[in-house]
């Protein structure tokens, strides 16, 4: 008798997004290197052969997870920044702080892309480095636009400097979320104060 995963892997109606989302949690919790195929099989309901058939390899599945995370999570959160709302950056930070403070399962694991960027995989893999670098550039640009909306009194070079500080605080807060929730919350909480207090040069 065929296993459920084997049937699932051959079905034309195979829901790739559901499998990618299930695999995301495994990679998020364990990291790429430590995530085992058996764990991925259990989480996705697919057999090893079905995973390889659909994604080419464990690495192919991980690439699909990172791409989906960038589109579905990161860009969704960044999109309101720079849209003309002076409070957009504070709202963005508040959303992150609330998720971390409430110990939401995914929030307490930090940022999947930042985790990937600091893993041994990134040191050996140019594609992962490029993806993480691209994410960082998108985030910095979105925060820069939000800072310009929030502080129209500042000259462009001062906006650049303030945005760089705020982006660094966001990265630090997300990085700390996995190891030290209190420090993460304190770091993110400093962003509104920094926005308000930054003086003209």
TrEMBL record:
Domain HTH tetR-type: 13-73
Keywords: DNA-binding, Transcription, Transcription regulation
Positions in coiled-coil regions: none
Record's protein name: AcrR family transcriptional regulator
One Pfam assignment: TetR_N
Ranges annotated as DNA-binding: 36-55
SUPFAM superfamilies: Homeodomain-like, Tetracyclin repressor-like, C-terminal domain
Gene3D superfamilies from the UniProt entry: Tetracycline Repressor, domain 2
InterPro entries recorded: Homeodomain-like_sf (IPR009057), HTH_TetR (IPR001647), Tet_transcr_reg_TetR-rel_C_sf (IPR036271)
The keyword DNA-binding belongs to this UniProt entry's keyword annotation: yes
Lineage, opening ranks: Bacteria, Bacillati, Actinomycetota, Actinomycetes, Micrococcales
Molecular function in Gene Ontology: DNA binding
């Amino acid at each position: 008798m065929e296993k459920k995963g084997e049937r699932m892997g051959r079905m034309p109606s195979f829901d790739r997004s559901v499998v990618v989302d299930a695999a995301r949690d495994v990679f998020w919790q364990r990291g790429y290197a430590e995530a085992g195929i058996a764990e991925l099989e259990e989480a996705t309901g697919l057999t090893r052969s079905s995973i390889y058939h659909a994604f080419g390899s464990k690495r192919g599945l991980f690439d699909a997870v990172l791409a989906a995370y960038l589109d579905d999570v990161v860009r969704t959160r960044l999109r309101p920044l720079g849209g003309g709302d002076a409070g957009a950056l504070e709202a963005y930070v508040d959303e992150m702080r609330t998720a971390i403070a409430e110990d939401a399962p995914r929030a307490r694991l930090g940022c999947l892309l930042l985790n990937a960027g600091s893993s041994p995989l990134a040191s050996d893999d140019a594609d992962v480095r490029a993806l993480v670098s691209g994410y960082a550039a998108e985030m910095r640009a979105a925060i820069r636009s939000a800072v310009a909306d929030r502080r129209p009194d500042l000259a462009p070079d001062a906006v650049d400097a303030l945005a760089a500080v705020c982006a660094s605080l966001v990265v630090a807060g997300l990085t700390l979320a996995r190891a030290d929730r209190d420090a993460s919350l304190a770091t993110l909480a400093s962003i509104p104060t920094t926005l308000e207090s930054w003086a003209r040069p």
